[in-house]
Design goal:
By secondary structure, the protein is α/β, with parallel strands linked by helices. It has eight helices and eleven strands. Helix content is 35%, strand content 25%. Keywords: ATP-binding, Nucleotide-binding.
């Protein structure tokens, strides 16, 4: 589904990702773990087409068998790739309904958008009042992350990168978010959770855990790899 082939990435002359190869399979769930500065978020941003990151000439990004190296972020989004923000942005004067009308660009009528947003908000225990407010202005960490998850569901991508969706949320909010992510899994979505911690993985079970360090994938394995990291830290891997 999403293949990374010899992915080497630079900012200017500085290499920040080194010869990464991996194949994300359709309908599977992955966790990308690693200490701060290991390259987790950089990898996701590169896949999404962030213009600051330059691919090596031998690097290849393939989505459903087609090269997306030269596609800008909006084209990758249209093809079915979604990346949540590690720190969701605030949008003054724009609520979630307005944002989704713009993002979906006529694919759903406004009434249908409102109904779907409200349905997902009910699942995530978000108040109607919050939906009508400027997006993320004065919202708690958990509320911001829940609104990101709604955006992912509304855009209906094939593959979803959640970048630290468990950071800055309390235990109850994390469980609610995890339950919603599991509902996306049941719809056949490919889920990639970028996280420092094992706690969300107790609720969203990954098929494979990938560990990064210094811009490289150093090991991958099953869920017990995340359990090992929780007990021994990254130095024990």
């Amino acid at each position: 589904m999403l293949e990374l082939k010899n992915l080497t990435v630079s900012i200017g002359r500085k290499k920040i990702l080194h010869n990464i190869s991996f194949d994300f399979k359709k309908g599977k769930t992955y966790a990308i773990m690693g200490p701060n500065g290991s390259g987790k978020s950089t990898l996701a941003a590169t896949i999404m087409g962030h213009p600051a990151y330059e691919l090596n000439k031998k690097s290849r990004l393939l989505f459903n068998g087609k090269t997306i190296n030269n596609d800008p972020p909006h084209k990758r989004s249209e093809k079915g790739i979604f990346l949540s923000f590690q720190t969701p942005l605030s949008l003054s004067g724009i609520n979630i309904y307005q944002l989704m009308r713009y993002a979906l660009d006529g694919k759903l009528d406004p009434l249908e958008i409102r109904k779907k947003v409200q349905k997902y908000a009910k699942q995530l225990k978000i108040s109607e009042e919050l939906l009508s407010r400027s997006l993320n202005e004065g919202f708690s960490g958990g509320e911001k992350k829940k609104l990101e998850v709604i955006q992912a569901a509304m855009l209906d991508p094939e593959i979803i990168f959640f970048d630290e969706v468990d950071t800055g949320v309390d235990v109850d909010a994390m469980r609610i978010i995890a339950s919603f992510i599991n509902s996306l899994k049941k719809k056949g979505k490919t889920i990639i959770l970028i996280t420092h911690y094992n706690r969300i993985l107790k609720h969203v079970k990954p098929d494979e855990v990938i560990v990064m360090r210094d811009g490289k994938i150093i090991v991958s394995g099953k869920k017990n790899l995340a359990d090992q990291i929780e007990k021994e830290g990254y130095e024990g891997v």
